[in-house]
Amino acid sequence: MPVVESAAACRFGGEHAQTLEQLYKLIERLWKEHRTSPTRAGDELVYAFGNLDCVVVINQDVLGALVEVKTKLGNVDCQANDQGEIVATLNTDPKEGGREDGDVAKILSFAVRALDDYYYKRRVA
User: For the whole model, what pTM was predicted?
Assistant: First the structure.
């Protein structure tokens, strides 16, 4: 999978396309301005952005691979579908803190606000 460091290079699909685009543009900005030290996860380098209310996890392919959104409202996985569009799916795996009652739209919107507040407004989400 090639490294994708620009949200402009991504195609967003599904009913959450607009919020996904906002999230990916914010991740792109965070990658450029607040890059963290990686942690090794198997053969990959993994980076995380966020706080106790919201964490976004990406690997060294930046936006070109799975993006995990983990919040107190539930978890969402973002990745390309068979058509090459980035889509969001609810992660209900209890071992990863997933919740069956999670709302993808609310989780994504919360993540965008929480990350923006934490890194740029310095407010607690």
Answer: 0.88
Q: Which pair of tokens denotes residue 38?
A: 């990686």
**Distance of alpha carbon 116 from alpha carbon 50, whole angstroms:** 9
Residue 125 confidence (pLDDT): 47
User: Can you give the pLDDT at residue 29?
Assistant: 92
Cβ contact 72:60 at 8 Å: no
d(CA 112, CA 22): 7
The secondary structure of 7-75, three-state, reads HHHCEECCCCHHHHHHHHHHHHHHHHHCCCCCEEECCEEEEEEECCCEEEEEECCECCCCEEEEECCEE
Tokens at residue 15, please?
């009913």
pLDDT band at 73 (very low <50, low <70, confident <90, very high): very high
Token pair, residue 75, equals 């978890």
Q: What is the pLDDT of residue 57?
A: 95
Q: In what order do the strands lie in the sheet with 11-12?
A: 11-12, 85-91, 74-80, 67-71, 54-59, 44-50, 39-41
